[in-house]
Amino acid sequence: MSDKPLRIGIAGLGTVGVGVVRIVRKHAKLLEDRAGRKIEIAAVSARSRDKDRGVDISHYDWEDDPVAMARRDDVDVLVELMGGSDGPAKAAVEAAIAAGKHVVTANKALLAHHGQALALAAEKSGSVLRFEAAVAGGIPVIKALTEGLAGNEITRVMGVMNGTCNYILTRMEATHQGYNALFEEAHKLGYLEADPQLDVGGIDAGHKLSLLSSIAFGTQVDFDAVELEGIEQIELQDIEEAAEMGYRIKLLGVAQMTGRGLEQRMSPCLVPAASPLGQLEGGTNMVVIEGDAIGQVVLRGPGAGEGPTASAVMGDVIDLARGLSIPTFGIPAAKLTAARPAKAVVPAPYYIRMELDDKPGAMAKVAAVLGEAGISIDRMRQHGHHSPTAPVIFVTHKCARNQIDTALEGIGKTKVVSGAPVAIRIEEV
Amino acid sequence: MSDKPLRIGIAGLGTVGVGVVRIVRKHAKLLEDRAGRKIEIAAVSARSRDKDRGVDISHYDWEDDPVAMARRDDVDVLVELMGGSDGPAKAAVEAAIAAGKHVVTANKALLAHHGQALALAAEKSGSVLRFEAAVAGGIPVIKALTEGLAGNEITRVMGVMNGTCNYILTRMEATHQGYNALFEEAHKLGYLEADPQLDVGGIDAGHKLSLLSSIAFGTQVDFDAVELEGIEQIELQDIEEAAEMGYRIKLLGVAQMTGRGLEQRMSPCLVPAASPLGQLEGGTNMVVIEGDAIGQVVLRGPGAGEGPTASAVMGDVIDLARGLSIPTFGIPAAKLTAARPAKAVVPAPYYIRMELDDKPGAMAKVAAVLGEAGISIDRMRQHGHHSPTAPVIFVTHKCARNQIDTALEGIGKTKVVSGAPVAIRIEEV
Ligand SMILES: NC(=O)c1ccc[n+]([C@@H]2O[C@H](COP(=O)([O-])OP(=O)(O)OC[C@H]3O[C@@H](n4cnc5c(N)ncnc54)[C@H](OP(=O)(O)O)[C@@H]3O)[C@@H](O)[C@H]2O)c1
Ligand SMILES: NC(=O)c1ccc[n+]([C@@H]2O[C@H](COP(=O)([O-])OP(=O)(O)OC[C@H]3O[C@@H](n4cnc5c(N)ncnc54)[C@H](OP(=O)(O)O)[C@@H]3O)[C@@H](O)[C@H]2O)c1
């Protein structure tokens, strides 16, 4: 037990910041027992001082400027919960590090864009930078990967890590409504970020994936190399066709080190409905970690919200109170390598859907194009004829994405389909 | 980076010990990067020096006596992988602690029986005692509970933590064979401990539950208070009846702090087939942790085997190399309270099966007994008459275990059933 309390300064008193204040107030004794010392809030900062935040902050010093707060002598740890890849979040974190203070943040955007620079700076100044809450909310996945599974060579990391997208996709299936209706619903419920592209464009989930990749493979965070595809193009019909064949569509992140470089992609995929990933409902997140000794570990839990996110923040704060010291991404930042991004993703089966003309010879033409692209067919489904076209679904055997692209282009040229054919990867999970 | 390697001494070179040697040899560079220093094996110990272990141990000093090895000046960490609650495992761990060395062990029996004494001794001598591999094999659940979720008041912990029992139960359902046939199969496959009661009697899983309880609730390990019930009494018929009603039978551990004391039980339960716990196949383990901030987190992974268990051991070793220092059960041993064991478990619905005489009035008599015990019925199933008796299944509404016991006794006295009625708890997971 140390007599010295750990004093934190909280920058940002929104959903997560208020959650942290609540835990510190409610569990003072428990936290002291577990951390081996008192955890105290020295100061807080947010935009508007007078906002009623539903929690009493009158005992803490107020700072208008988060950078000034980060530099205070009585702040041992900056808890950054403002958000944004640049601006005050970055400035405050940099100021804290420069002053040799530790940092806990929930800010995936900041780390996805500046993780390497911040990690280098932190190690230089003897600061520890932790970010459990930035990935998969309350699930202690950063800890599992950086610490618990550190004896493994990690072979693959997968995750459903944007609750809003998973909410939209599972609600489309449940309510038989299209994407736009569910987007509106998610918006009304306040599930979408101010810039919805962060969610439905896969950017937020891509940020998270880039952080997991770095730890898993000892590489510098490379968000720009994440192949991003959002969920806006997913049609109800695809969700329902997939379901009939025993699949569900998830916005799935996959990171793996291949012979051709580091593959990082965040895109809608079909996964078996009976798999743990397939069964994920609503806002719940799931991360799958595969390593050479462990085999596979699956972690599942709430991906967002006040309590879960604050729980992750407090886990980091308690670690720091206990004296934990680990490089930001698990190995010293200077040793993180610049991974060559894989130019082509590993082959997989694909789901292909098209509206085929209900004319003699149409199917033969499409089959010929697939054959020319070297794609062999595992299963085919053709539906009742709503002439003049009928939906046709192919499930291919494993093939390369460029074969699929060649085939899609070729199918367009046959003039026997209406609209553009759709292809979605089937991930073997 | 430290120039000083962390030197480990491995006592026990069986399944897990050999796995640890393999990881240290295979991943020397990776471990050094992650741990911040070299991890070296200084010495090893086992019973027979000449056994071919499939891995080269000629570079390491051999010690016949694990206690002597624990005391060596060139051993910083004793890695105890011999097993057994007493004998050489206990002696070696005590010797290491007395010498101020850290200890990593996979030995749940040792900790379930002597955890409190060892934790006190370790803290007195400045040793750190870690045991990730002792609970749920490769799943980093001790870390999740002690560190990642340390900001939560834990409300409930549940787990399927004996792979052999889960193998037997899921194979009974898949192959329509009875318990004895599958027990034999598990035996032939080498899945059973030398004393099979440790597995099928629920003892091994009970050990694990008692360790999780201690961390979750800040209480002294109290294995004797775990209400233990094995799987030997589970009949194929119960598994199949449960399946038809949408349940599966699992050997489920539940620990929760109630108004009436600490409830710890390890017993067969019905869980919804569609729940994560219900979907668990074969040797896979699952732990569910519920806390006031996080809500629910589910961790799933391999519960045993060379690679997964060695992975957990290495996670602990790397933590020690990085300087992690946490009390054994998350808070200082002297602060762990002696929890009052709950005398009665929390109410739940129950599954009751009996062979009812195929005579007028028989059902009325049973229904009367249930009513007198204050038990109300949610669902009832009666099967085709294989006179002179027919199986009847009741699913009750929530009631107390003593109401069930009263009813079972009363039903016996009615003389309208043949054999003893069976009652299995339905756990709301
Ligand atoms: N919400 C979640 O479930 C969740 C989950 C995982 C990670 N995160 C991450 O956690 C962080 C915070 O999220 P949140 O949902 O809590 O955000 P939020 O509710 O929008 O709160 C943001 C807070 O930051 C303050 N702030 C914004 N700009 C500021 C500035 N220039 N100077 C000082 N304070 C400023 C705001 O002040 P005012 O209140 O005065 O406007 C507000 O208190 C983000 O990085 C987010 O990505 C959130
Ligand atoms: N196996 C798993 O999957 C698993 C999973 C989780 C936890 N665990 C735990 O890990 C521990 C080890 O399990 P295991 O499966 O590796 O056991 P194991 O294969 O039976 O190996 C035990 C080892 O301990 C050595 N040993 C036994 N008594 C000894 C003594 N008196 N002095 C010196 N060495 C002695 C044996 O030596 P010889 O080889 O010379 O006979 C053997 O190498 C146990 O506590 C177990 O509960 C195991």
Automatic annotation (TrEMBL), chains A, B:
PROSITE patterns given in the database record = ACT (PS51671)
Coiled-coil segments:
none
- Which residues are the signal sequence here? none
Enumerate the Pfam families for this protein: ACT, Homoserine_dh, NAD_binding_3
Which InterPro entries does this entry report, sorted A to Z?
ACT-like_dom_sf (IPR045865), ACT_dom (IPR002912), Asp/hSer_DH_NAD-bd (IPR005106), HDH (IPR016204), HDH_cat (IPR001342), NAD(P)-bd_dom_sf (IPR036291)
Q: What pathway or pathways are given for this protein in its record?
A: Amino-acid biosynthesis; L-threonine biosynthesis; L-threonine from L-aspartate: step 3/5; Amino-acid biosynthesis; L-methionine biosynthesis via de novo pathway; L-homoserine from L-aspartate: step 3/3
Q: What is this protein called?
A: Homoserine dehydrogenase
Family recorded in the similarity comment: Belongs to the homoserine dehydrogenase family.
Q: Which CDD domains does this entry report, sorted A to Z?
A: ACT_HSDH-Hom
Ranges that cross the membrane: none
**NCBIfam families with a match to the protein in the record:** PRK06349.1
